[in-house]
Specification:
Glutaredoxin; 7-stranded mixed sheet; 7 strands
Length: 180
């Protein structure tokens, strides 16, 4: 028993050093490679980085054009089951709150524009669907998993980051957005 425990200790030590080496130093900018999953937390309470992306109709949509509105930026993809699962509730939320100034931008990380158009053609979404072709906006927002949603107030400040799929018709979420 003692021999087994001693060997387990060595296994854990080796595993620790392997993981430490594999993780390596965190790059300082997104141009140098992937960022740490903890980098996204630094964006909360900061001004939302501006961007311009193309929607499914070919129009260029700048985030700055929505200043003065409450904005949700939802990063998603057609190949992501949790993303597709939450889309209907995002649509319901938008229908319920667009008269109160809510705009939703669903930013797709798909590799092809045709995949997005095909998916959107099969559904009736009432909000902007944008394509982040090179995933540069996704990197700017330090998104490392899908879906990830940013809630931005009327002053363009990120007030909350939601990671994972949500039921956007939940009364607590609606109340939180309503406060803005």
């Amino acid at each position: 028993m003692f021999v087994v425990m001693r060997h387990m200790r060595y296994v854990f030590i080796l595993l620790f050093f392997f993981l430490l080496t594999a993780m390596g130093p965190t790059p300082k900018s997104t141009d140098e490679g992937p960022v740490s999953p903890f980098e996204i937390d630094k964006l909360e309470h900061e001004k939302a980085p501006d961007f311009t992306l193309e929607n499914i109709n070919g129009d260029q949509i700048p985030l700055s054009s929505l200043r003065g509105k409450i904005v949700m930026i939802n990063f998603w993809a057609t190949w992501c089951p949790p993303c597709k699962e939450e889309m209907p509730s995002l649509n319901t939320l938008h229908a319920h709150m667009k008269s109160k100034g809510l705009e939703i931008l669903a930013v797709s990380a798909d590799k092809t524009f045709s995949a997005i158009k095909k998916y959107v053609a099969e559904h009736d979404f009432d909000f902007q669907i944008l394509w982040d072709e090179d995933q540069s906006v996704m990197r700017t927002y330090k998104v490392f998993s899908l879906p990830t949603t940013f809630l931005i107030d009327r002053n363009s400040t990120i007030v909350k980051i939601f990671m994972g799929a949500y039921d956007w018709t939940d009364p607590e979420i609606i109340a939180e957005i309503g406060k803005l």
